[in-house]
Automatic annotation (TrEMBL):
It is an enzyme of class 5 (isomerase). One of its GO terms (molecular function) is ribose-5-phosphate isomerase activity. PANTHER family: RIBOSE-5-PHOSPHATE ISOMERASE 3, CHLOROPLASTIC-RELATED. The gene is rpiA. Belongs to the ribose 5-phosphate isomerase family. The keyword Isomerase applies. Catalyzes the reversible conversion of ribose-5-phosphate to ribulose 5-phosphate. This is Ribose-5-phosphate isomerase A.
Length: 226
């Protein structure tokens, strides 16, 4: 039996698949909402939809294979028609905070090159300003303590991400994640630029000016923001 949040995630996931057309190369995001999308896409592929997916995480790649979704990679294609991804926070300008699942680097590589980016989420992800969710920043392992010190000078507290068994979380790119507690993020693009200037920072979970469409699921149904 699904809880209401999962029902809402499933609804938007199924709606998003309607935007996928024959012949498309499709960026496949990461996270639990995307897992629902992969399930539906797998069914559509079985019914004859002819697409190729590019996964944004090892977990998505594994699940896509299980669902029989044909995959490709950047040795074969350099363009993506449509990417569908989730988010941890979405503000009024459709700026995103992402990376709760730790896949932000591959997500940003794929989402930023897509001709169209659709974000799917349940309505709990809508916020008036980003920053309640800790901002994930992927950093190289070497000297991460120093990188954390430099990040903290931007007025936040960075926490090294650990798994539930207390081992350090390692990303698909063999890096660490610092989850950064900012009081508020009033100018996401400015903060992203400052973070990117720090040596040791690979990428931030701020996705600004990238989204074409957000599909939100609530108990009352689905609504779209463009
Ligand atoms: C992973 C992400 C996910 O898209 C984000 O965490 C949302 O996940 P979910 O759909 O499980 O709420 O950015 O890096």
């Amino acid at each position: 039996m699904l809880n209401q949040i999962d029902k809402n995630k499933k609804k938007v996931a199924e709606e998003a698949v309607k935007y996928i057309k024959n012949g498309m190369t499709v960026g496949l995001g990461s996270g639990s909402t995307i897992d629902w999308m992969l399930k539906k896409l797998g069914e559509s592929v079985k019914d004859g939809l002819d697409i190729k997916g590019i996964p944004t995480s090892v977990k998505t790649e594994k699940l896509a294979r299980e669902y029989g979704i044909p995959l490709t990679d950047f040795t074969n294609v350099l363009e993506i028609d449509l990417a569908i991804d989730g988010a941890d926070e979405i503000d009024d300008d459709l700026s995103l905070l992402k990376g709760g699942g730790g896949s932000l680097v591959r997500e940003k590589i794929v989402d930023s090159v897509a001709k169209e980016l659709i974000i799917i989420a349940d309505e709990s992800k809508l916020v008036s300003g980003l920053g309640d969710f800790l901002l994930p920043v992927e950093v190289v392992q070497f000297g991460w303590e120093l990188t954390a010190k430099h990040i903290s000078q931007l007025n936040c507290v960075p926490y090294l991400r650990k798994k539930s068994n207390n081992e350090i979380f390692i990303t698909d790119n063999n890096n660490y994640i610092l989850d950064c507690s900012f009081e508020k993020i009033p100018q996401p693009i400015r903060l992203h630029e400052k973070l990117k200037l720090l040596t040791g920072v690979v990428e931030t979970g701020l996705f600004v000016g990238m989204v074409d469409r957000v599909i939100i699921g609530s108990d009352n149904g689905i609504r779209t923001h463009v």
